[in-house]
Amino acid sequence: MISEYNDGQLIELVHENSEEAKSILFLRYKSKIDYLIKKYTNASLSLGIDINDLNQEALLGFTDAILNFDERKDASLSTFICLCVERKIKKALIKASTSKNQSMKDTLSLEYIYEDIDTPLKELIEDVNSDPLVKVSEEESYKELLKEIRTALTDNEKEVFELLIAGLTYKDIAVLLDKEPKQIDNARERIKNKIKKILNCRA
């Protein structure tokens, strides 16, 4: 029976357009794919990506894996499937965060609430016992501020900043970027300090 074939035999059948072989491989690795989907569910929901769309991205990653797997170059089919599925999901999330930021550029202000700490940007960047450093009310001024902030950040900090203003929690960002939560929290602190410095110069 085809269901008893090993991965290599099934891959050969997939290359011959066997849907049955593809289905068997999917069921064989479904638990690993489901794990990866679950891993990124919170980040997905934060960015407004429907769980069905997340499943679709995972399926596309799985299809890429079985169509492009080469046992002579790739360690194992299991590892390659996980790599392709995770890469596909991450690309979708990064693209969604970029799109979300683009759509928010004209509407965000320092009143924007960071989901993970339920705090507006102006409070996030100010000292606990101080008055707000500055409030940007004009749309153009805010755009200029964002540009100045992005220029001041390192590539890593910029990536974290974009995901933060897209609404992801620092824990979700840690998962997405394969970093420890503490690393993201430290990056957030550096970002806050740089924004404070910019705002002090503008005040």
Describe this structure in words.
The chain has 203 residues and is an all-alpha fold. 69% of the residues lie in helices and 2% in strands. It contains ten helices and two strands; from the N terminus they run αααααββααααα. Helix 7 crosses helix 10 (181-202), helix 8 (155-165) packs across helix 10 (181-202) and helix 9 packs across helix 10 (181-202). The radius of gyration is 22 Å and the shape is elongated.
Please give the structural blueprint.
Blueprint: H1 7-15, H2 19-39, H3 41-46, H4 51-68, H5 77-104, E1 113-114, E2 119-120, H6 121-124, H7 139-152, H8 155-165, H9 170-176, H10 181-202
Helix pairs in contact: 1-2, 2-4, 2-5, 4-5, 7-10, 8-10, 9-10
Oligomeric composition of the shown chains? single chain
Enumerate the spans where pLDDT stays under 50 for 5 or more consecutive residues. 105-111, 113-118, 124-139
- End-to-end separation in angstroms reads 74 Å
Q: How many individual domains?
A: 2
Give the class from helix and strand content and strand pairing. Answer: mainly alpha
Give the percentage of residues in beta strands: under 5%
Strand segment count: 2
- Listing every helix as H and every strand as E from the N terminus to the C terminus, the arrangement reads HHHHHEEHHHHH
Average pLDDT figure: 80
3D shape: elongated
Number of helices: 10
